[in-house]
Every structure is written in C-alpha cells, then in structure tokens.
Write a structure and sequence with these properties.
The chain is mostly helical and 74 residues long. 51% of the residues lie in helices and 0% in strands.
C-alpha cells in the first residue's frame, strides 16, 4: 500500500512486519508485546481507571451510577 504520505506508509509497513514476526495474528502480536514488556525493567503505568475499578466494589460508587435519569431526560 502506497500513499502520498511517507509517514503513513512507514507505519503500515511496520505494522505488517510486526504482525508477520508474531505469527500473523493480532493475538500473537499482543502476546509478544506483553512478554517483552514483562521482561523489561521499565516501569509500567497502571492507569487511573484500573486503580479506580480495583477500589470500587459496586456500581453505586461510580459517578455514573448515582445519576437518577439519563442526560436526555434532565
């Protein structure tokens, strides 16, 4: 695939190469990247959503769970 944008062409080529090196499947690529991340000594960002979900035990604790009606009805 060739476009008039060399940056997009490079991104597409890199994506195709990474997929090919990982067995040609997205699940293979994800497994490869997760293994490389686990083997690295780089810090990992867990994100606020993951932390918030771990702290929350019921949906009423979430801001969206405390709304009595949909936004269109207000």
């Amino acid at each position: 695939m060739t476009t008039k944008n060399p940056i997009l062409d490079e991104l597409h080529a890199t994506r195709e190469r990474l997929l090919a090196e990982s067995g040609g499947t997205l699940s293979g690529l994800v497994a490869r990247l997760q293994a490389e991340q686990a083997a690295s000594d780089r810090p990992q960002y867990t994100g606020w959503i993951k932390k918030r979900c771990a702290e929350t035990t019921k949906s009423d604790d979430l801001p969206i769970g405390n709304q009595s009606s949909s936004p269109g009805e207000r």
